Amino acid sequence: MTAETGEAQAWHLRLFEKSVLKQQKLRELLGAMSRLGISADRSSLRALDLGSDNGVISYLLRERGGRWASGDLSNETVSSIKALVEHDVSLVSGDALPYPDEEFDLVVVVDMLEHVDNDAALIGEIARVLKPDGALIVNVPNRKSYS
Q1: Could you state, in order of their start, the residue ranges of all structural domains in the chain?
Q2: Of the candidates 112, 111, 83, which has an alpha carbon nearest to the alpha carbon of residue 97?
Q3: What gap in Å lies between CA 35 and CA 2, rounded to an integer?
């Protein structure tokens, strides 16, 4: 880890500690994984997180174990995620994920589905990169909770 990465991690983690919404989002993701019987601490887990905000969710998921890849639609967000996790981070488009067929045991989509032009195409791509017995967890904002 570089000094720059350490500083980025510290800054993003401080923001995370102040954000009730981000903490709730992580709890919901971990709860969904638990209900599906998915343990992130098993070293054989190959997982993909898409749209993980500024990267703190990516970082915290990776801290729990498994082999994670991360992707986002924005160059800026990809740079932010790379500052935290350093590797296996890709710029993705909603209709073409840069991963091989049946690569992942788990795909987690965090606040991204509502930002793609063709959500059906993205779901099709996720189905392609998921293993046959893989799991998909999708988180989308609940606008009612903000009113």
Answers
A1: 3-146
A2: 112
A3: 36
Sign of the torsion formed by the C-alpha atoms of 74, 77, 50 and 144: negative
Select from 80, 86, 89, 62 the least CA-distant residue to 15: 80
pTM: 0.85
Read off the DSSP letter of residue 1.
-
Question: Rounded distance, CA 33 to CA 28, Å?
Answer: 9
Segment holding 78, helix H or strand E? helix 75-85
Average pLDDT, whole number, for the chain?
85
Two tokens, residue 147: 């009113």
**SS3 state of residue 144:** helix
Distance CA(16)–CA(26), nearest Å, equals: 10
Q: Does residue 142 have a pLDDT over 70?
A: no
Tell me which CATH code domain 3-146 carries.
3.40.50.150
